[in-house]
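Tokens as discussed.
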């Protein structure tokens, strides 16, 4: 099992949601988050420099899935979130060792059915 986390532009959330729904993933968590960091700037004729970025609002999406679904989820998030501009976001993939449904005690992939 995997946990997929994506940080995307809040303005692209609806497009990401639509792409995930097209492939059958309608259940996932979403959170408003704020990012800050260092941005790489390319200026014509000058080596790249770095500047501190402002605090930027984004949306974090979390999905727990079977390993066989990984690529189609990554593709859906990428397609929905992509504008081609700096700041489109990142996707992280983690291994999940176990999952327990509190309601009935189901464990592992049985929870994902």
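Sequence:
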């Amino acid at each position: 099992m995997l946990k997929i986390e994506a940080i995307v532009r809040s303005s692209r959330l609806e497009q990401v949601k639509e792409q995930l729904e097209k492939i059958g993933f309608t259940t996932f968590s979403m959170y408003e988050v704020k990012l800050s960091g260092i941005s790489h700037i390319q200026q014509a004729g000058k080596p790249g420099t770095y500047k501190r970025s402002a605090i930027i609002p984004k949306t974090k999406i979390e999905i727990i899935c079977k390993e066989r679904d990984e690529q189609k989820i990554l593709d859906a998030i990428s397609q929905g979130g992509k504008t081609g501009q700096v700041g489109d976001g990142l996707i992280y993939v983690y291994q999940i060792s176990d999952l327990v449904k509190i309601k009935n005690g189901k464990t592992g992939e049985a929870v994902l059915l």
